[in-house]
Amino acid sequence: MSASPESLGEQTLDALGRDQVGAAAGLLRRMYPADQGILLRRASRAERRVLIALLTPDELADILDDAPTLAAAAVTRELVPEQAADLLDEVDTYTVADILQELPDEHAAAILAELEKPEEVTPLLQYPPDTAGGMMTLDYPQVRRGVTAGNALDRLRLFGEDAEGFGWVCVVDDENRFAGSVGIVELALATPARSVGEILDRYDRALVTVAPETDQEEVHRIMSRYWLSIVPVVNDQSVLLGVIRAEDAMLVAQEEATEDMLRIASAPGERVFGPLHLSVRHRLPWLVLNLGTVLVAAAVVNLFESTIAAIAMLAVFLPVVAGQGGIAGTQTVTLVVRGMAVGEVPPPAGLRLLGRELLLGLLHGMALAALAGALGWLWKGSLGLGIALAIAMVGNLLVAALTGAGVPLLLRRLGIDPAVSSAVFVTTFTDVLGFLIFLAAGAFFVTWLG
Asked: What's the rounded Cα separation, in Å, for the pair 355 and 358?
């Protein structure tokens, strides 16, 4: 059974730590370029420099081409501009642009100046990497409407081995406006003398394009909705600027899903083995904010200090109220944020979503109210406690539903990423209002009914 990339990576770093450089090189070469890049990013800077020195220029170029952007950028930072440019000349232009945008401005400018064809990369640098313009590639087969099917196939053959990545040819008119795309099968089945324009007119398909400013998440939604292998990027005059391939959109979708999950957990931009100072910088502010929200909840409990002192059994059930509200709120906020990310929650559907979650909160609250209320009554022999716990369950799950759906909707309305720390705010509301409802109800019903 072959070793996993993670196991090979650990063995490589372990060998390097024991000064077994030859063994480390052998283990490193057993990994795929993408995994090599991930390992190099995870390694310390000293380890990274040693490992880079063990690799040939061709092996480094494969890493820059195949590894995730941040990993490729970490490798590029360790290279002098001339060496980095020589390697990046062997990499796709859109990948080069993504890497350069992750580097310090001075280093990126120095590398750009040394590239063999900087004019092919420069147009991509004007767009942010998280937009269609930043994702598109300029290296793709393109023909005019009047070109014959035979000549179009010849044009595709000019790409050599790279042609394997294209199952289509883009078609433009005389003003370079996008007219459509024709698949290789359609070209192969057509008579060689037939024009590409005639093939397009025969199928009469609606054109699906995006602007260069389109957000990368919207690009992925469009490709998923219409099962597209490419999405052309056009300007206001429909002039073809580039294309986005399905495999690139899938990588972006994976990165976005990971980033949204980290934002919900208030740890955006982190990786498991990332630098310690970045983890502190990302997490500590939210932990401090959470400390403030917990103190607010503590202040609510303090308002009922005399009640708790007289009816101590109320304190036993405070974690029950907070825990159920927190879990219900986290379930809702995770579902809603994910739904927004994949386009399932357009702005007009916000109120309908809110109503649905409130109904779910009521149903869940009533079910838990019956269970928790009966448990409190039977365990402590207090009918008043059971009623108070039941009221708190219904109330807090309604709060969880309202805030779990409402906070992301409000953040989106304000132009803020809904994934950013939504869980922190939801937990605050469920803790504060849950304690308030339970202690107020407990003070009344336990005193009245015992």
From this structure: 5
Closest CA to 150 of 201, 178, 189, 177: 189
Distance CA 82, CA 96 (A): 14
- The secondary element (H helix, E strand) that includes residue 57 is helix 57-66
DSSP one-letter string for 181-238: EEEHHHHHHS-TTSBHHHHHHHH-PPP--B-TTSBHHHHHHHHHHHT-SEEEEE-TT-
Condensed to tens digits (0 to 9), the pLDDT of residues 262-272 reads: 665 555 555 55
Q: Give counts: helices (H), strands (E), the chain.
A: 23, 5
Which tokens is 60 given? 């480094």
Q: What's the rounded Cα separation, in Å, for the pair 247 and 229?
A: 8
CA distances from 158 to 152, 153, 161, 164, 174 (A): 10, 9, 9, 12, 22
Q: Cα(366)–Cα(364) distance, rounded to whole angstroms? A: 6
**Would you say domain 5-126 falls under CATH 1.25.60.10?**
yes
Reply yes or no on domain 142-251 having CATH 3.10.580.10. yes
Taking only the tens place, the pLDDT of each residue in 169-218 is 999 999 999 999 998 889 999 999 999 999 988 876 678 999 999 988 88
> Other C-beta atoms within 10 Å of 185: how many?
10
Residue recorded with tokens 């196991």: 7
CA distance 429 to 437: 12
What does the domain layout of the chain look like in residue ranges? 5-126, 142-251, 276-449
| Distance, first Cα to last Cα, the chain | 66
Residue 236's closest CA among 200, 197, 263, 210?
210
Cβ-contact 134, 241 below 8 angstroms:
no
What global pTM score does this model have? 0.60
CB atoms within 10 A of CB 177: 13
Write the class of the CATH domain 276-449: mainly alpha
